[in-house]
Amino acid sequence: VRNDNSSRFGKFIRVWFNNMGRMAGGDIEVYLLEKSRVTYQSPNERSYHIFYFMITHEIDLREECKLTENIYDYPLMSMGKVKVESIDDAEEMQIMDEAFDIL
């Protein structure tokens, strides 16, 4: 069984509490787990999901980042699998965009 949505990043979350036991702050450290995926993907893998999300984004992000709609214009992103049946890239990007709006 393959996890089509496995994370390529690790996160360490530190939460700080005050002397009353209430949350007073925190921070998140993000680190790259699979550095090899930046430059190479095996035939059954694809690179970082966010790139595929951005290619399908219809709310100005593709244009702002000067991306084309063709994933094959990006050899490092298209050497492996470019479509995963269980992931709707456009929908996932929409969800992510809405989450950023909330932040």
Count of runs of 4 or more consecutive helical residues: 4
Name the average pLDDT.
80
Kindly name the structural category.
alpha+beta
Regions with little confidence, pLDDT below 50 for 5+ residues: none
The major sheet is characterized as: 2 strands, antiparallel
How do the strands of the widest beta sheet line up side by side? Answer: 1-2
Gyration radius, rounded: 17 Å
Please give the oligomerization state of what you see: single chain
Task: Report how far the terminal alpha carbons are from each other.
Answer: 34 Å
Number of strands: 2
Instruction: Report strand %.
Output: 15-25%
Provide an overview of this structure.
The protein is built from four helices and two strands. Helix 1 crosses helix 4. Helices cover 29% and strands 18% of the residues. The protein has a two-stranded antiparallel sheet with strand order 1-2. Strand 1 and strand 2 form a beta hairpin. The chain is extended and about 55 Å long.
Produce a short descriptive summary.
This protein is 29% helix and 18% strand. The protein is an alpha+beta fold.
Task: Note the topology.
Layout: E1 9-17, E2 23-32, H1 49-56, H2 61-64, H3 75-78, H4 89-102
Antiparallel strand pairs: 1-2
Structure characteristics:
two-stranded antiparallel ribbon; extended; 4 helices; 103 residues
